[in-house]
């Protein structure tokens, strides 16, 4: 069993964030020690790491909540459960990821356009400074 500080170290999330995820229902409330401190199993740490990866992907907390409604389905499937038991969940996850990916692709196009503009300006300014150097000789 791990304390919230140990979980924080392992996941890179602050204890505040872990408690916040609990509060909003993204994360189930863990068991408590006799003293009332939160204690986590390794499986819960794996789940928190999964949440963290989804957050790093840029999913909103609402999307993460929907995405993880059935828990860590991949772990369940890897432990031998039939994937067809999770078809509705997997389809919902596909829908969430496809929507998110479309947004990322759109942002990529915007970034590529901004890079192109910056490169054009850089080339222009480099040419102008070369002309300036030639004219001062």
TrEMBL record:
Keywords (A to Z) from UniProt: DNA-binding
Membrane-spanning intervals of the chain: none
SMART domains named in the record: HTH_MERR
Pfam families reported for this sequence: MerR_1
Gene3D superfamilies linked to this entry: 1.10.1660.10
InterPro entries (alphabetical): DNA-bd_dom_put_sf (IPR009061), MerR-type_HTH_dom (IPR000551), MerR_fam (IPR047057)
GO molecular function, one term: DNA-binding transcription factor activity
HTH merR-type domain sequence ranges: 1-70
Source species, domain of life: Bacteria
Protein name: Transcriptional regulator
Organism, as annotated: Paenibacillus graminis
Lineage, opening ranks: Bacteria, Bacillati, Bacillota, Bacilli, Bacillales
């Amino acid at each position: 069993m791990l304390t919230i500080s140990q979980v924080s170290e392992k996941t890179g999330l602050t204890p505040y964030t872990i408690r916040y995820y609990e509060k909003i229902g993204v994360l189930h409330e863990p068991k408590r020690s006799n003293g009332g401190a939160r204690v986590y199993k390794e499986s819960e740490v794996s789940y928190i790491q999964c949440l963290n990866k989804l957050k790093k992907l840029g999913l909103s907390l609402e999307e993460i909540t929907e995405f993880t409604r059935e828990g860590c389905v991949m772990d369940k499937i890897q432990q031998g459960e039939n994937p067809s038991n999770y078809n509705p969940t997997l389809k919902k996850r596909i829908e969430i990821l496809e929507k998110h990916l479309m947004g990322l692709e759109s942002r990529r196009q915007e970034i590529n356009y901004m890079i192109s503009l910056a490169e054009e300006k850089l080339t222009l300014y480099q040419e102008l400074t070369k002309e300036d150097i030639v004219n001062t000789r």
